[in-house]
Amino acid sequence: MDGIKYAVFTDKSIRLLSKNQYTSNVESGSTRTEIKHWVELFFGVKVIAMNSHRLPGKGKRIGPIMGQTVHYRRMIITLQPGYSIPPFRKKRT
């Protein structure tokens, strides 16, 4: 499934990692249940909550013509304690 585009690394998303919350951009047409099912199936984790918001596209000018980039949706996925998504795991020493 190509619903999840990529992980987001901002100051807020890095802060949310300590609360076991992961942030990623997803396709704007994807539903919460599709994303939840895909994350649980692919990463083998349990999702307890999902928050989403739609981010508007940015204006782009090409000569006299004003256009706009495609809008997208950002999801904040909260996992049950004890679960984590592998690329974000802390190194064990």
How would you characterize the overall build of this protein?
- Part of the 50S ribosomal subunit.
- InterPro entries: Nucleotide-bd_a/b_plait_sf, Ribosomal_uL23-like, Ribosomal_uL23/eL15/eS24_sf, Ribosomal_uL23_CS.
- Its main location: plastid.
- Belongs to the universal ribosomal protein uL23 family.
- The chain is 19% helix and 38% strand.
- With 93 residues, it is of the alpha+beta class.
- The strands form 2 sheets. A 4-stranded antiparallel sheet has the order 1-2-6-3. It has a two-stranded antiparallel ribbon with strand order 4-5.
- The N and C termini lie far apart (34 Å).
- It has a single domain, classed as RRM (RNA recognition motif) domain (Alpha-Beta Plaits, 2-Layer Sandwich).
- It contains 2 helices and 6 strands; from the N terminus they run βαβαββββ.
- It is elongated.
